[in-house]
Design brief:
Elements: H1 13-17, H2 28-54, H3 60-79, H4 84-109, H5 113-133, H6 141-165, H7 178-205, H8 214-242
C-alpha cells in the first residue's frame, strides 16, 4: 500500500494525480475558510430543523432524506471533481438536514446532549491536530493501513445493518448492549484517528495541488468531522439510556 493512501475517499490519489496544472495552489488557509463556511451552513440548517421540530413539525423523513442526499452528492463529487465548488455546499446542506433530524431527537430526550457532543467533537479535533503537529503520533505506513482497514470494516458493518433494517431485522448496533456500546467507542476512536490521515494528506499536497482541490479537502474533513460527531452523540445517548 502506498504511503499517500487514506481511508477518506476525498483524499484518494485518483482525485489528485489527475489534476490540471494551475498557478494558484491549495493552501491550509483556503481549506480552513471553506471548511468554516461549510460548517456554518450545516449549523444554520441544523438549527432550522431543530426549530421546526420544537414547533411540532414532523421531521421523520429528514434524517433519511438528508443521509441519502449526502451519499448521492458524495458519489457525484467522486466522478465530477470540477463540480466540487458547488456540490460541497450542497453536501453541507444535506448533512445539515440529516444532523438537524438526529440532533432534534437527541435533544428532546436528553436536553443539552447535542451541545456536549459538539464540545467533545471540537476538543477531539484539536487534540488530534496537536498530536499530529507535534508528531507525538506519526502517520506511518503501518498506522495508515490499520486505520484504513478498521474504517472500511466499520463502514461495511453499518451498510449490512442498514440493509438488514429493510427486512425488519434490527441489528445490535441500534441497541444499548455492551457490544453496541463497545462498537460505538471503537468507531469513535477510528473516526478521530481518520483525522490524522486527513491532516497528513493535506500537508503532503498543500502548496502543490491546484487551488480548486481545496474543496475536496474541505469535503474530506467534513466527512470525518460529521462521522465523529454522530458517533459521539450516539455513544452518549446509549450511555445515558443504560445508566
Amino acid at each position: 500500500m502506498r504511503l499517500d493512501k487514506t481511508s477518506n475517499p476525498a483524499f484518494n490519489d485518483y482525485f489528485w494525480d489527475n489534476s490540471n496544472k494551475s498557478s494558484q495552489k491549495m493552501t491550509v488557509k483556503g481549506i480552513l475558510i471553506k471548511t468554516l463556511f461549510s460548517l456554518l451552513i450545516i449549523t444554520t440548517i441544523t438549527v432550522g430543523i431543530w426549530k421546526l421540530y420544537s414547533q411540532g413539525t414532523n421531521i421523520k423523513w429528514f434524517v433519511t432524506g438528508g443521509m441519502l442526499s449526502a451519499i448521492i452528492i458524495s458519489v457525484v463529487i467522486s466522478v465530477r471533481q470540477h463540480w466540487a465548488w458547488f456540490l460541497v455546499p450542497l453536501y453541507a446542506v444535506a448533512k445539515g438536514v440529516f444532523l438537524g433530524g438526529i440532533t432534534s431527537y437527541a435533544h428532546a430526550k436528553f436536553p443539552n446532549m447535542p451541545y456536549q457532543a459538539i464540545g467533545v467533537t471540537v476538543i477531539t479535533f484539536f487534540v488530534m491536530l496537536s498530536l499530529y503537529q507535534t508528531r507525538i503520533i506519526v502517520v506511518t505506513k503501518k498506522l495508515r493501513s490499520v486505520i484504513i482497514t478498521a474504517c472500511a470494516s466499520i463502514f461495511v458493518v453499518y451498510i449490512i445493518s442498514w440493509i438488514l433494517s429493510f427486512f425488519g431485522i434490527k441489528s445490535f448496533l441500534w441497541g444499548t448492549s455492551w457490544l453496541a456500546i463497545v462498537f460505538n467507542i471503537v468507531a469513535a476512536i477510528f473516526a478521530s484517528l481518520a483525522l490524522l490521515l486527513d491532516f497528513d494528506y493535506i500537508e503532503r499536497h498543500k502548496n502543490k495541488a491546484p487551488k480548486t482541490k481545496e474543496w475536496f479537502a474541505t469535503w474530506g474533513l467534513l466527512v470525518t468531522i460529521i462521522w465523529l460527531y454522530v458517533e459521539i452523540l450516539r455513544l452518549m445517548k446509549k450511555l445515558a439510556i443504560r445508566f
